[in-house]
Design brief:
Helices cover 31% and strands 34% of the residues. By secondary structure, the protein is α+β, with helices and mostly antiparallel strands. Strands 1-2-3-4-5 form a five-stranded antiparallel sheet. The termini are far apart. The relative contact order is 0.18.
């Protein structure tokens, strides 16, 4: 499954947490088997990522991507936008 980043926003209750919405696309084989694309929202920070609203742990492959979005240099443009939203005066 490939993942496309749809939205990265701060959590409204905990500003330290990120909410990341991903579009999970099935592989070619999975699409032949009838699997559909789905949107999933994950919440967390650093190494702790959970699928909302059920708060089950994120799969390992997805958790690596979420950690990279949270800390990795290749996603600095998303982190910058996230920090601007967190520090925005209310």
């Amino acid at each position: 499954m490939s993942a496309k980043i749809i939205k990265v926003v701060p959590n409204r209750l905990d500003q330290d947490c990120m909410e990341i919405t991903l579009q999970l696309e099935p592989s070619l084989l999975e699409s032949f088997l009838g699997k559909k694309a789905k949107r999933v929202t994950f919440k967390g920070k650093d190494n702790d990522w959970f699928k909302t609203p059920c708060f089950s742990r994120a799969p390992t492959k997805i958790a690596k991507l979420l950690r990279a979005i949270n800390n990795g240099w290749e996603f600095r443009h998303l982190q910058y936008q996230y920090q601007k939203q967190v520090n925005k005066p209310h």
